[in-house]
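Protein in question quoted for reference:
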Amino acid sequence: LDTSTGIKDARYQTMQRLSKLDPDKAADWVEQQPAGTSRDHEIIMVGSELMQRDGQSGIDWFMAQEMVADDMAGGRASRIVYHLATDTPEKAAEWIRQQPDDSNRDTAEVSMAWIYQQRNDWDQGFAWLGQVEDASVQGEALEKMLKNGWDKEAGALKPEVLQAAEAAGLEEAAGAYQP
């Protein structure tokens, strides 16, 4: 399909429908498309549907696809982590451990931190955040997690949040945090 705006919208809507109705056909079509951001979006769309319908083979297809945009590839890793964590976070953790140590893994580790933080397991959340190698990615996620752990009435971090951050080696940032 062409790259004009109207055609892009039609392509997106068509792929959205096809990926829900027949993700295998959608996957076949996406595989024939040239590399580019439109294809990256379609990979995310189709891969998400394939994972929902076919678990591990959906993940295998998703990971086998080349993506041109690093942020889209990171988004793929994050979607896989959230999908696997719906069963158990341990499943997602095992998948992350098998991935190369790169920016996509950092994105997946941040996703794990969020999953645990949402479960009020600050120790595991900060432990995962402590593994993120990219300092700016880690710093941005840490800022958000600390904000979520701030006790407005006390005007300080909740004690369990501060303790968990310290245990993960993030005590300097946690100690200096002010919303």
